[in-house]
Amino acid sequence: MNHAAGLSGMDESMKPEDLYDWDKMCSALAAQAPWWEPGTATGYHAITQGYLIGELVRRITGQTLGQFFATEIARPLQADFHIGVPESEFPRIANLIVAGEGEAPAPEDPESISARTFRNPFSPARYSWTDGWRKAEIPAANGHGNARSVARAQAPLACGGSAFGVRLFSEDIARQVMQPRIEGHDLVTGVPQTFGLGFGIVPESVPLSPNKNTCYWGGWGGSAVVIDQDARISAAYVMNKMADGLTGDFRSFKLLAAVYRNL
Fold first, then answer.
1. Predicted structure pTM score
2. Nearest to 224 by CA among 254, 195, 196, 197
3. What pLDDT digit, counting tens, does each position of 45-70 carry?
């Protein structure tokens, strides 16, 4: 849950289309030797995290992560968000406006863990325009929704496990998310990082919130979500015009500041 498994990428070379093949990706991860001793350091599992967690969900429930999310979270909360989009919803999707060449940033050392993570597996942003990408379940990368749906899906975490008349988990689990599990210099993003239970804990150096019990994460191009249990709010920003950031950008940060001013 905390990007510390040592499986942020893989040695077996993968084509962008291989991300659509769930069994191939999970088999490659099962055979992959960790790039560092699991649990000793954090390294953002940019793409692989979705397969690692999704395969656990599949083995426990018999459902894919997209199916489980739809039946247990999205539909009960009426959150208009999909992991694997039905063709009937394709006309509602806005194509990403790609920044530059639509490639991930290249670290200076091509053999670093960071460079290897973003190089393989990787899919250029323009692949998101294709039917294959939209239909596939790539849980760390191809969720489709709007900002309202992202915030709505996270609202139970902000409100002690329950929102809109739906209880997803206990207040104790909600509190546990905010407890730091691992921290240090992230081997992939190259910045200090603290992870709670699956989320980044807001650091003092990046004051996204004035409140202590706040977690967040952001996406390539600028999207971001912040969950504040003290204020009992979830706030999200998504875009189709990509910026260069890997985990959010100043557009989302400025809007979040406006949210807190209005509170």
1. 0.93
2. 254
3. 999 999 999 999 999 999 999 999 99
Does residue 7 lie within any of the structural domains? Answer: no
Whether residue 10 is contained in a domain is answered as no
- How far apart, in whole angstroms, are the C-alpha atoms of residue 81 and residue 94? 14
Q: Report which secondary-structure segment, H or E, holds 235.
A: strand 233-237
Total domains in the fold of the chain: 1
- Separation CA 10–CA 12 (nearest Å): 6
In a domain, 11, yes or no: no
Enter the tokens of residue 103: 């490639």
Q: pLDDT tens digits, residue range 137-178?
A: 999 999 999 999 999 999 999 999 999 999 999 999 999 999
Q: Which domain holds residue 44?
A: 16-262
Ramachandran class of 150: left when φ > 0, alpha when ψ lies in -120 to 50, beta otherwise: alpha
Which run of H or of E encompasses 61?
helix 48-61
Which residues in the chain come in under a pLDDT of 70? 101-107
